[in-house]
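dumping this here so i dont lose it
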């Protein structure tokens, strides 16, 4: 039986992509009882897992995927000091830093800038409202990666 052309070599290919993901942690669900309580050590392990999530999971589909930034908004109040959508809107990913002679397509992470409002946030930095006006009071922003 003849099937015609095959799919070999005709799969779509994306040369470079930047994925943005948002996550949420509910402290009330973490303290259901003493047995299921989430400790500071548990949270540290979670953040480490987020930072290294693709390092030991190489495959043809995810061969060179990397985590480029992990930004953590921490609230003083367990009920939150600001709505999540407002905080996520503070984080901007800009790719307009291309040189005029470059082609218009983004092909590497160096062509992006991750900003909080209008300021670059270096890795390892922690900001509060006093450090950065765009951050609401009662919230700390930490860049882990």
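and the seq i came up w/
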């Amino acid at each position: 039986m003849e099937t015609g052309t095959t799919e070999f070599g005709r799969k779509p290919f994306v040369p470079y992509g930047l994925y943005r993901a948002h996550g949420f942690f509910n402290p009330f669900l973490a303290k259901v009882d003493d047995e299921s309580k989430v400790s500071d050590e548990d949270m540290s392990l979670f953040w480490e897992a987020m930072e290294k999530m693709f390092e030991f999971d190489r495959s043809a589909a995810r061969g060179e995927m990397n985590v480029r930034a992990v930004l953590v908004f921490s609230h003083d109040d367990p009920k939150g000091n600001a709505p999540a959508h407002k905080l996520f809107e503070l984080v901007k990913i800009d790719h307009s830093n291309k040189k005029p002679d470059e082609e218009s397509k983004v092909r590497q992470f160096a062509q992006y800038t991750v900003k909080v409002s209008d300021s670059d946030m270096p890795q390892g930095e922690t900001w509060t409202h006093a450090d950065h006006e765009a951050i609401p009071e009662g919230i700390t922003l930490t860049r882990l990666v």
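The longest strand covers residues 71-75.
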